Amino acid sequence: MANLLRFLRQYYYVFLFLLLEGLSVYFITLNDSRQSSSLISLANNISGSLYSTTSNITSYFYLKSKNEALVQENKKLKSQISSSFVRIINSSHQQTDTIYKQRFSFIDAKVISKSVTKRNNFFMLDKGFENGIEKDMGVIAPNGVVGVVVKTTNNFSLVMSVLHQDSKLNVRNNRTKTTGTLVWNGLNYSIGQIIDMPSSIAIKKGDTIVTSGFSVDFPEGVVVGTVRNFTKDAGTGFYNVDINFSTDYNKLEDVYVIKNFFKIEQDELLENIPE
């Protein structure tokens, strides 16, 4: 208490000045509508700026929760798109009713470690077998393909990236519908290569490349990238195509692991195909 009184005695003239200044402003605005309007406008601007700053700071701290909500919403939407379902038509009695049965579902996960500059690159995810993730499941990002699960533990998964010499994914040109195989030459993590795409149908720079749907691990139509440049191989009759990947693998954080409900059935059919 003694310290407070000593402080007030030492700086009483400052408080007196502020009091008199406040009274002066009050009497001026009381008798002058223009001054009053100006001061009110200034006060509103200051308070508005303070509210805006406070809102921005608050929004920053809520970014993580908002991002989590977006991940969940994306997972839900991906599970509802038409390529995640197959149409079953019962024609044995000439019925025309159709039933849509879900083929794919999606498990959200986060990348906790990665490599992009090696010849063979992998991603590690923060979810594993206990979360429903199994070997050979496809993995996609919000903007494109990522790779295939090659190993799981109870709580983690290892994904072979498309940036790997053994990665081969069937893709198609979304405009021409011609198909080819996506590979990676090990040089630039932002550029992929397509082989075995017939040169009989013209392609263009900027054409969108998507998954073909021929693989049991990926739905049809997942974006892979866009055509960067291409050449014709006269000896083989195929294009050599470079594409810009739609996903920046060096910044990859959120992914979706794809569960194909019909995978076992499809694999059993493929096992019995003669060479």
Explain what you see.
The chain has helices at 2-10, 12-31, 33-61, 63-80, 263-271, and strands spanning 85-89, 98-102, 104-114, 122-125, 138-141, 144-152, 157-161, 169-173, 179-183, 191-198, 208-211, 223-233, 238-245, 254-260. The protein is of the alpha+beta class and 275 residues long. It has five helices and 14 strands. Helix 2 (12-31) packs across helix 3. It has a six-stranded antiparallel barrel with strand order 3-4-7-6-5-14. It has a six-stranded antiparallel barrel with strand order 8-9-10-13-12-11. Strands 1-2 form a two-stranded antiparallel ribbon.
Numbering strands along the chain, what is their spatial order in the largest sheet? 3-4-7-6-5-14
How many helix segments?
A: 5
Order of helices and strands: HHHHEEEEEEEEEEEEEEH
Radius of gyration over all CA atoms, rounded = 31 Å
User: Which spans have pLDDT < 50 for at least 5 consecutive residues?
Assistant: 82-99
Helix content: 25-40%
Average pLDDT confidence is: 77
Main pleated-sheet profile: 6 strands, antiparallel, barrel
Distance between the termini: 95 Å
Strand content: 25-35%
E-strand count: 14
Which class of secondary structure composition applies to the elements?
alpha+beta
What sort of overall outline do the alpha carbons produce when their principal axes are compared? Answer: elongated
